Each structure stands twice: as structure tokens, then as C-alpha cells.
Amino acid sequence: MAEQSTYSISDLASYSGVKAHTIRIWEKRYNLLCPSRSCTNIRAYCNNDLRKLININSLINAGWKISKIVELSDAELEAEVKQLMSGKDSNCSDFLINGLMTHMLQFDEGKFTDVLIHAFESYGVKDAMLKIVYPFLKRIGVLWQTNDVSPAQEHFASAIIRRKILATMDAMPKKYTSDKVFILCLPPDEFHELPLLLSQYILLEHGIKTVYLGSSVPADVAVVAAQQAKATHLCTFFMSNSPMGMLKEYLVNLQSQLPDIKILFSGCPEMCKKPIVPGNVIHLGGIAEFEEIVKGLE
After folding, report:
1. What is the pTM of this model?
2. What's 296's DSSP letter?
3. How far apart are CA 125 and CA 249, in angstroms?
4. Which of 104, 239, 267, 282 could lock 192 by a disulfide, CB 3.0 to 4.6 Å apart?
């Protein structure tokens, strides 16, 4: 039998949305979870513990009392959560985030996709990304991540979200009402495309043409594309923990070869504290600021 993943109590708190202090109280008062312990008395939890806690949090968000929840068997707990998913209140943001978490841990593509589609239909693509998908990704450590390698579940979830956004954009009418053209790309060794895809969605929604180059694009390649497409703007995101000097070099390289194009970037907190590259390079504080800029171009 394959060994299950193990989680610390801080991992459990981050993934479930339940504070570590609350988890400890529930364990002591209700014997809710039974973690294993190391020789130094450090708790270790398994996938079943995490899934159970996420389900409990879903019921808590739906108005249940913990004293009633602990009376349920694991099967009854699963059944109550499933019933909530099909109910009228199933578009609650916390509930949808918990649903994505649960189905991601089980590698259940069908159910994960169903929750994602439900979120898109209830909120619209843009608001679903901001209110459901981004908080979900932050919880699992994908968005603005600092690690070079993500767990398999994170890649699984990101791939499904990416496919859904692409399918939605493919169905959008391509009616360009602006003379602006945006190059969209990520720097070398950067592969988290979801913020870039959301940016493309917003641009298309506002009738602005995009040239989507995707992940890990060398500066020289982006420059050629911008020149050939007669681009007016270039947008990029720094999501990983690449050295500061490398990221600055990327922006300087773009700026020196594209002096007449506005270069927008976001994602690296250290680079956002001050304008390290003067001139036509603009730091974005978030997606709302990006959309304000886009609206001003219409």
C-alpha cells in the first residue's frame, strides 16, 4: 500500500482554513482527529484527516455547530457535504474553495471540474478567479509561491483551471474595438500561467487584441514578437523565487529594446517596493489595478 502524505498542524490549518488553535481545541474537546506523534511529540496528519477537516469547515461555513458535527460518522459527514453542494447555498465562496480542496486531494477530476464550472457560472469567470480560484491557490501555495517544485495535487488543480479558462476564452467572440495590442508572457523558468490567462481574459473582454506567448519566454523572443505585432503594451508576472538580479535584468532587457512600449509587471514583492526600473516600466499592485488601466485604453 502506498504511503499517505503527512501534514503538520500548520499545514492542516493552511489547507483547511481552520486555525491551528481551533484544531487543537477540537482534538482535546471532541477527540476529532487522532494524529500520530513523533518521538518529540510533534503531530502528523494524513490525507483522511485533512479531508475530514475540510468537510467540517464546509459545514461550519454553512451554519452548523461543531457540537452537532462531531455526532456524525465519517459517512454521514460526507453525505451532508454532498447535499450542501447540490443546494441553493452552494455558491458560498468558502464552500466552493473547500470543495476544490477536497476533490483536489482525491484527484477527482470530474468533481473538481463540476465545482469549478459551478463557480464560473455563479460568479462569472473574472469574479470566480478572484473570489474562488485565487484564494484556493493561495491556500495550497501555488499563487506567489516560493518553492521550486509543487506537489502533484497542485499541478493537477492548476491544469484543470487552465483548461477551463482556455475553453471559456475560445468561446468568446474576438471583436477588437481598440487599436492597442498586448504581448503576454512569463520570464524564463516561470510556469504559473493563471494570472497571465486572467489578464488575457480581461483584455479580450474589453475588446483588446492579445498575443499570448505563455510561460518561460526569453526577453529577446518577447521583443521580436512585440516588434512584429506592433504591440503597444507588454505584461508579465514574476511568481517564483528567481534571484532579484535576474528579474531586474529581464525588465531592463525588455525596456532597452522596446523603449516605446509600456511594460507592465507584477508578482515579486521585493521588486514592488520601489521603481527599480525607471521610464516605461509600470508595477501593478494587483488585478484590479490592471483592469483599471485596461478600461482607460478603451
Report:
1. 0.75
2. T
3. 34
4. 239
